[in-house]
Amino acid sequence: MTDIAKLKRKLWEKLGESPYLMMGLTSTHEHSEPLTAMLDKDQVDRIYFFIGRDNRLAKGGPAMAQFVSKGHDYFACLSGQATVDDDRAMIDKLWSKPVESWFPGGKDDPNLALLRFDIDEAELWEADMSLVGKVKLLFGGRIRPSDEGGHAVVQSTAA
């Protein structure tokens, strides 16, 4: 049986290790694009991204983001709302040297926008295959769901 709270905690742990997602607006036919997540441990069900005001995501709306962990052992599909939120306190909190390299005008760069992604629902998978599952995989045995790891559809990513 899947430990859903553990699966949710793992999402934030894995995003912290490799904060890269593909994100796109679902109301358009435009492709998703890679973004670097800015995580605020004080926020639940929310991810921030620094983008340019000329970025196609800046118009906001219903959005979806996909995540694959660095070790390819955790996967997430997140849906929610994207909104430009130029909260100066949040910009100050999340600002870093890597972000500054994209915005030569610093925090006052006229093209700087802080995109807030509020997660409404998430589908999470952990490929934490059991030892029995790994042996079956090596020798062509049938993999059962109990050998695979965890999976859940959740309305909140809070653990």
From TrEMBL:
Classify the source by domain of life: Bacteria
Q: Fetch the InterPro entries from UniProt.
A: Split_barrel_FMN-bd, Stress-Dev_Protein, YdaG_split_barrel_FMN-bd
Q: Return any one Pfam family short name.
A: Pyrid_ox_like
Where in the numbering of this chain does the General stress protein FMN-binding split barrel domain appear? Answer: 8-131
Protein name as annotated: General stress protein 26
